[in-house]
Amino acid sequence: MLEKLRQEFLENTTQILIIDNTNRVLETDNSLFYIKKNSDITEFHPFFYVISSLFEEDRKEQKFYCVQIEVKGRTCFYDIRSIVDFDKKQVVLFVEDLTDHYKTVHQIKQVRNESIINFNITQELNHELNVQRGFKNKFLANVSHEIRTPLNSILGFLSVLENTNLDREQLDLVRIVKDSSKNLVSIVDDLLDISKIEAGRLEIKNKRFNFKKFTDSLVKTYELQAEEKRLELISDIGTNLPRFLIGDQLRLNQILINLLENALKFTHKGSVTFRISTSSRNMRRIPVTFEIRDTGIGIPKEHLTTIFESFTQLEKRGLFGGSGLGLSIVKQLTQLMDSDLEVESIENEGSTFRFTISMGVSHDQKEEKKVTTRRVKKSSGPKGKKYRILLGEDIEVNQLLMMRLFADEGSYSLDIAKNGEQLVLFLEKYQYDLILMDLSMPVMDGYDATLRIRNHKDKKIKKIPIIALTARTTEEEREAAKESGMNAYLTKPVNAEILFKTIDRLLHRYKNKKTEESVE
Predict the structure, then answer these.
(1) Is the previous residue joined to 493 through a cis bond, with omega within 30 degrees of 0?
(2) Are 339 and 275 in contact (CB under 8 A)?
(3) pTM higher than 0.85, yes or no?
(4) What is the pLDDT of residues 98-123, one digit of tens each?
(5) In this structure, are 321 and 463 located in the same domain?
(6) Number of folded domains in the chain?
(7) For residue 445, what are the domain limits?
(8) What CATH number does the domain containing 236 carry?
(9) Half-sphere exposure of 396 toward its Cβ, with a 13 Å CA cutoff?
(10) CA angle 432, 435, 440 (to 5 degrees)
(11) CA separation (Å) from 392 to 419, 465, 470?
């Protein structure tokens, strides 16, 4: 009798599913809702994207509360318990229908103790949102890494090819491919920035910078681009603007580049006007107004309220094409700077984008003295020997690129280890002056290899300079690299000039430290 009642109760309240690590449904009893066997469970509801991340954690069992799913037009609330079988690469889901329970809780909340119950429900919902947000952020970071890794070799070898004996047509083709590859990098960066903004992890960093030099560089760059399209770029930069301001140059540059790129892209005749002005000359803070006006195709009135949404493009006309993220990032960055992006547009006549940012005025308006630190190519270490560099890199095409870059440089000799464990063995067998460390390597990754080096019993090995050279770009990974003991952090696609300047700087610092220690 009890067994019969138990089975009847479970059939009405609980569904059991077995899912593999690719989200494929292996088994289901379909007690609560119908899911076809061998189908992808994420197609039933996006919550189930969390399943693939369960295999990456150490916890065997987890429980997710108050998962809302629409079943045959009815809103249902489920508690879902997961048990992972790491050997079989399967997860068993116990889906318990608690719709009546959660609805009752909601009714009680309205009658008594509203604030406490509301807090609990919010916590439960936040847990689900955090799981989904964590999955999305991790997914975007992995996508960024996987795209940047091949782009590193593509852009690197294109730069090498660019410096060979090419005719004019070949050189133009190489530069077209190079520009397209750089555009792909910027799209990936846009995706990560949107993710950071939505997660509230993108901060505005205000620092002193040369505002005049910054705007002059922008004008010069886009004058050339306008000339290529036979357009006129009209620049009107206020003469009363201070030379040095305090603000976030990186994010301001990101905003203006997006707006200028769009203006030039969708203007086929006429001009683009870039205007910067201020209505005040306060000695501490001033409002700086930026305006980009074009005579392009304009924006239909009905679309003016939607162009700032993520992944939104105006179809048919291709307006604001690409990733559909540029204007969304611009809008959100201006809001982070306590400003508001205004837009005026008339279809077939043009558009105007305008925003005002309050910026600090630097007390020191003097131009810094330029210190020319020209790096001498073909330099060498003590007694004319080349500095010896050890590279940790598992991807063969990236190994070939680095070998070519170092061969062209001629100042160093380069050895390559294909994983962190091999890299440590090389250090113990041979003498090196500096290490270039990829973070994602098999057997032992860059973080663990760095920790092994920094805790090594040999003092020379322990203090060797280490530069992270990675396709991972998040602040968390940058901080983790710093905490593990790395001296610098460079991202792929690698910039050869920055790479060798960083190497020279650390070698110089390391050499001075060794000299000081020998004197002591």
Answers:
(1) yes
(2) no
(3) no
(4) 888 887 776 666 655 555 556 666 66
(5) no
(6) 4
(7) 382-519
(8) 3.30.565.10
(9) 0
(10) 145
(11) 6, 13, 10
